[in-house]
Amino acid sequence: MNNRVKIDDDNPSIQRIEERCIDCGVCLNTCNIETGLEKKCRTEDEKSCLYCGQCILSCPMGALKERYEYKRVLNLLNDTDKKIAISYAPAVRVSLCEELNIDSEIPIEELMPAIMRKLGFTYVFDVSYGADVTIIEEANELLERLSNKNNLPMFTSCCPSWVRYVTNFRPELVPNLSTTKSPIEIISTLIKTYFKEMESIEEDIISVVVAPCTAKKYEATTGNTDYVITTRELAFMIKESKIDLQSLKPSKPDELLSEHSKSGLLFGKSGGVMSAALSTVHYLLTGKNPKIGSYDLDIKEPISKKSFKIGDRIINIAVVYGLKNLETILAEKEQYDFIEVMSCKNGCIGGGGQPLVPKKDEDNRIMDRKNSLTCIPKLSNYCHENTAVIEMYNSYFTGYSSQKAKELLHYKHSNKN
To answer: Is 220 in contact with 182 (CB distance < 8 Å)?
Structure first.
């Protein structure tokens, strides 16, 4: 069968159910459209799959699925006394109701910690804390590069499909990738270091993350995250465990690694990383917070370009979603200082691990998810205002961009992932 995407047996993110496949070609067409990989070599030994999972969302027969890990997690919860932490991404909580087919008025944001504890997790955290830390590190990294005029433009690196694209197909751009870890990897790293030390925990902690993204399963193979389950897999766990959501009472995640800002939530949509980073860059350059909305980016097109005057600097930025749109930006990359790239349409809210949506409903569903990300009140506006993060930097890292922070919160990208 040559009319379909190639899924190797060792693919960490995607699996094919052979008996369901009718070789219709929809998955291959989707891959070509979403990634532009029809322009790249597809030889037998070429690792062309970016693990983004868009083929899963398009398959009309349900022949393509994420590589399930939720059964392993359930077995760990039910059959061991290990300490298991779970962290959930902002794009998950704005779409879980869809997958569970429950009333969107049910306060799922407030019920998420209760659901996790009912499933048996020892600790519950919010990945948005990791997003706040990512932004602080990334903003400092950008300013250092601008000052040294080194490896510009800087590209975001929180999308593992994009990072894989660079390392496999554009290795000359590897030095331009931000070295800051993704929010998921930061939260897992902090669970196993900072949290464990602060709470005087001697046993190893298993870190599970719920993500809207199938590629995060691949990212976890080389990081501190032990298991990644998708939004759909979390819904399977809830259903199979027969959890009655109506009987649960709202609760909060564990305190140390869960406070987050409104900016941290925006990672779930295209332009969110850029908006959050520019706000913190503004603070670092001027010592003052920007006016609310100064760096809001209402991304409606796959490619967006803007310039901002921050202090005495002009910072030129671009935001891209859908890797097929990259070549336009890469051809003119010297014009920019900072470029955000997300593989999936509209960012993580359109990730390959999200609920399956009929094509006719896709735009409305995406808009609902976008709106849900920005409607949570009583949060600080900016990542650098997160008091829990400030305390961690002061007490554990002895300041921003310290050697310890660089060792724990950054990594070196290698060619050919």
So the answer is: no
Describe the strand order of the beta sheet including 83-88 as a list of residue ranges: 123-126, 83-88, 205-211, 227-230
Cis peptide before 212 (omega within 30 of 0): no
| Torsions phi, psi for 151 (to 5 deg) | 50, 55
Which residue type does 138 have? E
194 and 392 Cβ atoms separated by less than 8 Å:
yes
CA distance 297 to 30: 27
What is the predicted pLDDT for the residue at 37?
A: 73
Spatial CA neighbour of 165 closest among 47, 54, 4: 47
- For the beta carbon of residue 150, count every other beta carbon within 10 angstroms: 11
> Looking at residue 44, what is its pLDDT?
41
- Tell me the two tokens of residue 186: 């930061």
The string of DSSP codes covering 73-91 is HHHHHHH---EEEEEE-HH
Q: What is the pLDDT of residues 19-61, one digit of tens each?
A: 999 999 999 999 888 887 765 544 444 568 999 999 999 999 9
Q: Which long-range contacts (CB under 8 A, 24 or more apart) does 310-313 make?
A: 310/278, 310/281, 310/282, 310/285, 310/286, 311/282, 311/285, 311/286, 313/146, 313/285
How many Cβ atoms sit within 10 Å of the Cβ of residue 193?
Answer: 14
Q: Which of 164-178, 227-241, 403-417 has the lowest mean pLDDT?
A: 403-417
Per 3-state DSSP, the chain is made up of helix, strand and coil in percentages (nearest 5) of 50, 15, 40
* 3-class SS of residue 329: helix
pLDDT 10s digits, 65-107: 999 999 999 999 998 889 999 999 999 988 898 898 887 666 6
Residue 192 burial class via C-beta count within 10 angstroms: exposed 0-12, middle 13-18, buried 19 and up = buried
